[in-house]
């Protein structure tokens, strides 16, 4: 089959790799119908050193089950399924608590001999724990929306949930990428009354307004902080959803959060330390969030997509065929595209 | 009047200073009946540079109201009161939310011309917002217990509350100082089933056991982490109450907290940055806590003392008269005393 490989920064190739095969009785094999490029794929795309053992890319995908191992009971051949961005057994103590990203037998796509999600097919370990059947056909117009259940919508939702967003709250979302926009959708779903979106790209913040942002602040750093404080009577907001992953964004979050408030970070941290010393201690700031246990949120979020309440798939503003996936990376890296859908 | 002044590291003097007088109609003046030395007093005691304008020390005290301004309505002359370690107006938006430490008109004792709590008397700004009347006399045997409402008990309780300790939880407390022991009391009050106290001083951890600790781990660093993991089936605990304030204690907290768990820090951070980067993000660790809004907890905690449910005053293992307060500092700094009560 064909799959996307990263050889070094900027060097994305689509090559023949071995076809996935069942290895364990708990495995399934899926033929991939739709995948996409994640903001987090851009970190290695920008910086990976040259290697002989290229990285298998992609971790968000929808597919059709082709084969299942003898112990798989919840999906079967022909089912359309969404695949969360980590696999998990669904039965360990962490999975039972909803923290599927800390599954004792779980892991990430594209590493340790596993396929990535930007390819034609993938072996799925722990198919029962990992896969969620979709009640639509593979030609459904909802496919882009449902694809966001794999990662980006659940990641934005994780920010809002762990921050404790409730009806009537005022929330700041930092970042107008696909995760930030998903956080806007999520804050609105949870009843936030006011959602201040911090971002500089008008096309994206316009979509953010359609998703539910009530205010947009284009300023960054101290300017941005002052603008949010001005909007909130000097206090800042109860919750800040940090959807970037850079230290500057975290500092901005600390600047706009209200004393006693919560910062939830879901952008993969590109820093080893958090600048939370004595001043933030005096202000009683909480830092929460982390990698989203997408699997645990899918059952809760899918109905909102099927009902047409939310249209998170609008974050996909480009679609490329698999053999042009390198162009998809370039478009996202150069900010010409917000999020790129890949059709094998 | 006489008051405690710090001129430089190790140089504590009791000197004559001007008597406190009402300055605002919202002020009160109290004669101090009991004060004490706080672990946080030891940071300047260890490190303060020489100065001509010495620091007025002490921020935990009980006193008798001597005079009140014309607008004070909740206390009057002769009332015995406990004084939280910060003053607050009780009416601003932050106070109304219970975050009295972020009061818009509040502040700390001993700075900006205010008296400290290790002296004979003090002017109290915002007396209505700050003071809490005690329903006992100044000769009550409960005075040491009630004095802990000023700071140390409320600080331990803040750790347990912000960590979300609930009935049945397993909690780690890091630090066997007076705050750590108060955190043990608090975790037990909130229903924790298992309380693992990490500390090396047998006399203190023995008191911790009497307060409710079910396990004591004397090991530190990796040894300590492994011991707690062994006690918890490899998982670590849901909550960790970090009652030290050093970076090593925070690293230890990250080592013993369960994936998806909460670290609450109430030891004043002696570090500018928190080592919470990508690994802690992957584990979904929450960092909460901060300086305790003691005033907001006093009404809730006082009945437990009056009923005899808890005896937090047992953390005071020495009492010194005011003119020997320097010896009190030395005893605590040399770990010969756990916490020193000061009688003016």
UniProtKB/TrEMBL annotation, chains A, B:
PANTHER family assigned: DEHYDROGENASE, ZINC-CONTAINING, PUTATIVE (AFU_ORTHOLOGUE AFUA_2G02810)-RELATED, ZINC-TYPE ALCOHOL DEHYDROGENASE-LIKE
Pfam families: ADH_N, ADH_zinc_N
Domain Enoyl reductase (ER) span(s) in chain numbering: 10-342
Domain of life: Bacteria
Family: Belongs to the zinc-containing alcohol dehydrogenase family.
Statement: the UniProt record of this protein carries the keyword GTP-binding: no
Record protein name field: Enoyl reductase (ER) domain-containing protein
Lineage: Bacteria, Bacillati, Actinomycetota, Actinomycetes, Kitasatosporales
GO molecular function annotation: oxidoreductase activity; zinc ion binding
Cofactor list: Zn(2+)
Keyword Translocase: no
Keyword annotations of the record: Metal-binding, Oxidoreductase, Zinc
